[in-house]
Amino acid sequence: MNKISETDLILNPDGSVYHLNLLPEDIGNIVFTVGDPERVSEVSKHFDFISVKKFNREFVTHTGYLRDKKVSVISTGIGTDNIDIVLNELDALVNIDLESRTVKNELTVLQIIRLGTSGTIREDIPVGTILASTHGLGLDSLMNFYHRNLTGDELLLENNLNNYFENEDLVPYITAGSGKLLDKLCFDLEKGITVSAPGFYAPQGRAVRAEGSVQNLMKKLSNYEFEGHIITNLEMETAGIYALANTLGHKAVSVNAIVANRLKSEFAPNAQQIINEMIEKILSRI
């Protein structure tokens, strides 16, 4: 059995994974991810009790029980570069024997549930909506570095998207979320394709002082439609979560509190209320 090198999988002196500072017993098989470290406690306050609180850098983890299920919530920080760290280290915690540095014979499938904030790019989706991502569409380059296993439907949709964005020199990748989790947790929510951008300003069509090179990005995204698929919202993590979860054999779903409408230049004055509603709704369905 091949041994994973100390430089490929770095461990801390106590045996915990390098960035997350976690041991295998520190996480449950249901993992909520949030971007903001301060949102971790907004989720974990609904747990029946909390048994683990650990942090390192922007990665804060609380683990406890929600009814009879061991669950964790972890902050990822911003962007798919951080998602690369979080997903790989979560997978290592459950699927690699950290002492022998070998892959386990029996693999564990994590349920990864993103509870995030997002802005819609559709005029007909109002601020305050709770939206589930059927697919994550990445405008970043993360998945250029991984082998991917696309279904026929994903390949068809990705090819269509690449043709659609060809003139903008964008090469997006797309992955579907877990149908099982979408059906269980998001059956009554608005749904659509979520775009994950590699930045907050020009990559999301914002203009402050530096001029963006992709003209009319919001219009281009909001006008996309193919075989019933539409792009509904824009953020920075979902595509990486979906693609890496699929690559590693885990199940993932992303739920988004819509706190802005980019086409109408509206931002929710009650954003925290919308976020709280999303958290409570999803946790009640676990």
UniProtKB/TrEMBL annotation:
Its EC number is 2.4.2.3. GO terms for biological process: purine nucleoside catabolic process. It comes from the Bacteria. Gene3D superfamilies: Nucleoside phosphorylase domain. GO terms for cellular component: cytosol. It is an enzyme of class 2 (transferase). InterPro entries: Nucleoside_phosphorylase_d, Nucleoside_phosphorylase_sf. Residues 30-274 form the Nucleoside phosphorylase domain. It catalyses: uridine + phosphate = alpha-D-ribose 1-phosphate + uracil. CDD domains: UP_TbUP-like. GO terms for molecular function: purine-nucleoside phosphorylase activity; uridine phosphorylase activity. This is Uridine phosphorylase. The lineage of its organism: Bacteria, Pseudomonadati, Bacteroidota, Sphingobacteriia, Sphingobacteriales.
